[in-house]
Amino acid sequence: MIQHLSSQIEWDVCIIGGGATGLGAAVDASTRGLKTVLFEQHDFAKGTSSRSTKLVHGGVRYLQQGNIKLVMEALKERGLLLHNAPHLVKNQKFVVPHYKWWEGPFYGIGLKIYDWMAGELGLGPSQFLSKEQTLELAPTLDPRGLKGSIVYHDGQFDDARLAITIAQTAAQHQGVVLNYFPVTGLLKTKNKIAGVQVKDVFTGKTYEVKSKAVINATGIFTDAVMQMDDAHHKKLIAHSQGIHLVVDKEFLPGDTAIMIPKTDDGRVLFAVPWHNKIVLGTTDTPVSKPSLEPVPQAEEINFILSHIGRYLTKDPQLSDVRSMFAGLRPLVKGKTKKTAALSRDHLITIAGSGLITIMGGKWTTYRKMAEDVIDIAVEKNNLSKNPCVTKELKLSGHDQQPYPPTSTATTDIKKAIADEMCMTAEDFLSRRTRHLLLNARTAIEAAPLVAKTIAAEMNKDDNWINEQINDFTKLAKNYIPSPNLKHQPLN
Ligand SMILES: Cc1cc2nc3c(=O)[nH]c(=O)nc-3n(C[C@H](O)[C@H](O)[C@H](O)COP(=O)(O)OP(=O)(O)OC[C@H]3O[C@@H](n4cnc5c(N)ncnc54)[C@H](O)[C@@H]3O)c2cc1C
After folding, report:
1. Which helix (H) or strand (E) holds 445?
2. In the chain, at which end, N or C, are there fewer CB atoms within 10 A of the end residue's CB?
3. DSSP assignment string, 192-226
């Protein structure tokens, strides 16, 4: 990949950011035959894209808000993703329990509309269930006051694994995708964007990379890149944190997830089986600064434990939390006059310099976002006009089984290094496998073996191994609730 970087004089499309949005754009551009390069400052999906609730969904919540267009688009994308990446996306059954008489018909009708909107791409019809049928599917649901439930279907996926798969797909189509390559500045000719300056984190070597189109797909870091373009740029992005707690399967045995459409303070709460654990979430907490390692706050942990406890027969305690992870939503706070296309929930802007920025959206709609932004890049830069082909494009590995989510087999570590650009112990334990998110304590125990195996493959010394183990252990401690924390049940 790095050799390709030096051999290409000018690229058609250069993408900054290797999350869902940037990687999707890289696949879209490379499969249209455009010369495409992508730079990610850390590892692929290190940002928000490895920290989602793992749902491929139309968004029942958006339906409640009456955002029909957005839901229709997301449901269509859900169907396409299930078709194109069946190794990473599956049909997930949810129960929506109801405790008041009106909730059954209210949510039931809404979910019937949701089914209808999915049309041929639907994952199964929603159904009304009695109390007994509900408890058969979700035996640990609190039976007190339970009237029944509605069952509906949505998609569930492995976000970081999908990101790696998308990166591989781009590479299979001659796209160059580089992790650990931050963009440190923008190149300009007569005030027009002409490329980027990048730095190889591991060697310190810097490169000037020329490109006809430059796309800023940096999520919560959008403003920082816009400021590289225009020092007077006014910030557009606000950050909102969402956390998840991961507990053992005993809290929700079986394959059915629970969706609570409205908690006391109006949030949606999920308990979803994932890789043989249960993911509980999420929250919505404003935070002032973007961070690649946001940390769950005590109030957020307390909120999730207290609320989910109301719906389960056994209340999860702090000591039951095997791991916890936080992600930041980039929320677009201001409107800009330079808006080129205001498309559903994502926004694409073009600066005076020609820098294209794509913001917002969600994992589920990454393909459509990519199509929209590459259409604009083609149009604005007179690139060759081959049509988008990703609707039908099967993603890399679609016919293979991914390796186990907590694997520490040395063959899998070697495979991740050889085929998936895994460079550090954290890359393997957090995003090539999902060990850190599933059980932070056992992930810490696995770190020495992972670091040693990578060192042997990549010719690193003992200092490197020790550094890797220390860095990973320090990071992973933020995925375990502090022993000083006290769970304070809400009334
Ligand atoms: C709590 C939570 C739950 C969610 N759950 C769901 C869900 O269940 N389903 C769903 O569809 N969506 C969900 N989402 C939304 C979804 O996760 C995001 O929309 C998506 O991951 C955003 O991807 P992105 O590529 O835009 O941003 P990111 O994933 O943050 O990627 C941006 C990348 O840019 C890189 N970068 C920044 N600056 C530079 C630079 N100078 N040089 C190079 N690289 C740089 C960063 O390192 C980062 O990796 C959720 C979001 C949150 C916060």
Report:
1. helix 440-458
2. C
3. EEEEEEEE-TTT--EEEEEEEEEEE--GGGHHHHH
Average pLDDT, the chain: 93
Q: Pick the atom of ligand 1 nearest to 39's CA.
A: 43
The pLDDT of residue 338 is above 70: no
> Rounded to the nearest whole angstrom, what is the distance from the C-alpha of residue 327 to the centroid of ligand 1?
8
Return the H-helix or E-strand segment holding 287: strand 285-287
For residue 242 and ligand 1, the question of a CB distance below 6 A is answered with yes
Q: What is the DSSP letter of 258?
A: E
Q: Would you say 384 and 77 are in contact if contact means Cβ atoms under 8 Å apart?
A: no
Atom of ligand 1 nearest to the CA of 21: 25
Lowest mean pLDDT among 152-161, 258-267, 268-277, 324-333: 258-267
Cα distances from 70 to residues 100, 103, 116, in angstroms, run: 29, 24, 15
Residue 29 CA, ligand 1 centroid: distance in Å: 19
What distance in angstroms lies between residue 363's CA and the mean position of ligand 1's atoms? 8
Closest CA to 26 of 396, 415, 340, 331: 396
**CB 17 less than 6 A from any atom of ligand 1:** yes
- pTM to 2 decimal places: 0.96
| Distance of CA 217 from the midpoint of ligand 1 (Å) | 9
Atom of ligand 1 nearest to the CA of 17: 34
What amino acid occupies position 446?
A: A
